[in-house]
Amino acid sequence: MSTTRRAVLGAALGAALGGFAAATLARRAAAQPWQPERPLRLVVPYAPGGATDLLGRAIAERLGRELGQAVVVENRPGANTIVGTELVARAAPDGHTLLMASGASLVLNPLLYRRLPYDADRDLLALAIMVEAPLVMVVPPRLAASDVAEFVALARRAGDATNYATVGNGNPIQLAAELFRMAAGIDMTGVVYPGSAPALAALVAGDVQVMFDVVLTALPLVREGRLRALAVTTRGRLPALPDVPTVAESGFPGYEAGTWFGVAVPRATPAAAAERLRAALAAVQRDADFAARFDALGLLVQPPRDAAAIAAHLAAERTRWGGVIRARGIALD
């Protein structure tokens, strides 16, 4: 064999071996689950110190353990979650920027605003619904209503003199009250307060007759006897209020209200990264200590759901609240 032919064959063999090695490495890389290359950030579109911030930090700490990288919470409050949500929608889709998503950011805002700087479906991918935040229907103890039926009878006699407390237009507290008003066929007028604390104070004082508040904030007042809980808005009774019936079992089958918090990423995030993050979040949801901590506060940690179940949940939420928002003509721009 000539020197030239040996060189040609050697080059061909080297190229073939090199190609085989490259293909083998590619297959091995593809078989390995995605891992973050640097610390991640979890954008929380709420101010520090609140319940959502507390939840976000608990998720970040446990998620960091699962991924082997720190997860840093970045608070970006403003404009009814729009500021933080837009930031994540426009972030690099590399799996390193996450959103503390909610019913407000992915369901209600698209229904309430004619113009948003993000498209909830096109720009964002929900990976997990971590907790549900149920509401409780509370009244002042001096009100002559010990259950939902008595409240409805009282409201019918009072006509449009019945007022409910809310913390702004288009939020779950207002929408839960409006959904109940429609279901019960009663007249109620919303009175807006600049936050849950002043709204609850007005309710305790008897300035308004009812409020559908987040269990987390109303629970201490119920336990102190300063408010009476008539019903919870969940499908089943709550561990934090086991003796309080649901609105559904109080004469309004199918009634369900509340909000939820989860985690989303930019829609273009690679599938491998999205699935790795989804699996890590599922491990957080299965953490018994995590569940016990937030269940005791009235935030119900949810079992993991796959992509199809999450999409179905979002669709059902949009149908329910879209009907209320259109019927009541609620808009924020």
From TrEMBL:
Residues 1-21 form the signal peptide. InterPro entries: BUG, Bug_dom1, TAT_signal. It holds the Pfam family TctC. Coiled coil: none annotated. It comes from the Bacteria. Keywords: Signal. The keyword NADP does not apply. Belongs to the UPF0065 (bug) family. PANTHER family: BLR1237 PROTEIN, TRICARBOXYLATE-BINDING PROTEIN. This is Tripartite tricarboxylate transporter substrate-binding protein.
